[in-house]
């Protein structure tokens, strides 16, 4: 047996152990070790029971979170099985999603992630903690105000909490939606998971007879630096900070944001967009596709941005619905689910 397969066998054996612990003790050690093939088959059955059968995300707190954490610990994640879907659990899930193929990279535990973990274990594919995303230091975010997990779709990027200068998402793509320009510019890009949802949303808006276009998505740290410098020069730093962001503090660097508009207002990004049929439809339906109006009217003191009916941010359906129905900001929602 090679070191690798020995390691997988130990992992397999310990996964079996958790299941055995959580169900009535009805087998003896002898029964478990009669035949290595039987043990492996049993493992495949058992490990599926170990991983929860429902979507779990930041702030969730119950027995199934604890089961998930126990399984993550068994594949060597240094996290606590405290039953609370905390920053460490979010990191572990994000790290796995970055390592395994074809998964939505969200930091949210979903059924595709579950299947991929099961398959990786079955195929003896190693998952190496930290090789997808370096483990954030405990409370490092609180100290230097840097977003520790930029891949998480519930990450808060604002004037108090900035992205690392070197963060460039690995999964940028150009969504198949209308743009009012033909050049192949980097601002057409978004992260895969957000692009997919945006395509669905645009399709639905077209079916409703509307004419949405996408103006500006991903923006690199360097590009944001140049934009802020030019705005500051024209309007002064303080004024510029009300309508544009310093490098690192722009949500556009996440790749989860798109500014959208419509030809009836000459494709501009202006408050009047909110009064167009397209703007009203967006307010009503964005959440069905996992998007929120990130800077709502009347919340300027929380977001530190003026009302921007055109700036939409992908957060996933669960969070989006709660945010839009209860008229929250992302800041308020995160505060609510993590405290
Ligand atoms: Zn924007």
UniProtKB/TrEMBL annotation:
GO terms for molecular function: serine-type D-Ala-D-Ala carboxypeptidase activity. Keywords: Carboxypeptidase, Hydrolase, Protease, Signal. Residues 62-117 form the Peptidoglycan binding-like domain. Residues 24-63, 122-145 are annotated as: Disordered. Residues 30-63, 135-145 have a biased composition (Basic and acidic residues). Residues 1-27 form the signal peptide. Its EC number is 3.4.16.4. CDD domains: LD-carboxypeptidase (cd14852). Residues 188-317 form the D-alanyl-D-alanine carboxypeptidase-like core domain. It comes from the Bacteria. This is D-alanyl-D-alanine carboxypeptidase. It comes from Virgibacillus alimentarius.
